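Translate sequence into structure tokens.
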Amino acid sequence: MGKRELTALAPKPPSPSPLDESLRGNSTNYAILFLGQEHEIIRANRGTEIILGYPSEEIEGVHFPTLFRVAPAVETKWQQTIEKAQRQNSVVISDWLQRKDGSYLYAQLEALALRDEMGAVKGHLILLRDDSEQKKLQEQLKEKEHMAAIGTATAMLAHEIRNPLNGMSTTVQFLERSLQNNFNLSKEMIVSTVQDLKSEIGRLQTLLNDFHTLSHPQQVNCRRVQPTELVRGLIALLLPESLEEKVTIVEQFDPDMPQIPGDADKLKQVFLNLIKNSFEAMPQGGILTAKCYPDNGNACIEIADTGQGIPLGLNVFDLFRSTKPTGTGLGLAIARQIVEAHKGSIDYSSTPGIGTTFRVVLPSKNHLT
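Result follows.
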């Protein structure tokens, strides 16, 4: 049976198919379409008219991939969906579709290959369900969760800003009273007071910069990057002079470590944070172990220390959670955001008093397009 446009009619199949009974049914929850060997629509149920707006007689004989009046590139997508169902018997996808009247619905579509006794494909069954309301509810829930997260983060940011602002206000009031009453302040006291102010201002600037970075999606500019080189260079750069004699550096870099598609500057920020945290966790010295190795098509980078570990119950990826008195608690959240923008993952294991290991997994092939 050949293809035709929506204005033509096709003859009925010469004999009833096994699906005739279900197609004659009154179910309107699904649009049910039976396709012939050339992917033309042979039969459609009442639900097709209700969900898509097409009466059965109007679309019988129409080539299914053209049904939704889409661009040629999208039409090819539907053709490939049917061919995929033919190879693996069934396939389920969800997408936006166009009805007869031009409106759109979000639908779940399942395509099943129909075979004869010899296993040859004789046609396809299409089950299409309107999930527009469910999609709308999901989007509303997602928006509510997003707004709740913003509200929580804003409250936490206000709390973090309040403490340094209170300290700065107290310091300025002290200077103001001293100047008004002509207190004889020493030069050292004035310098120390101003330095305290500068320190608090710097902390606020860092906090706000980090929060601004976290509040925007990470944009990555990928080139071929060798993680081993990034990690090795940062260890040498970040090792404090005070720890040079106290910390042993162990490098376990697999020579087969692949290059990966990545944003070198962004990834440096991730590894800088992890390495710096490891050194700060070992103020009395210890062992820092850096591993880079391939694993099942991915590049794995581990940074391990023998420091104080992370307290039980503390998730260091949560906003404003830090084991350091002067930390903003945003560095690791930003690191995770960067890694996820590379379609990778980051996690950690830690034992208080023994040490912590962070593991970053990045795809060695480009999955960002």
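Note: The first strand starts at residue 30 and ends at 35.
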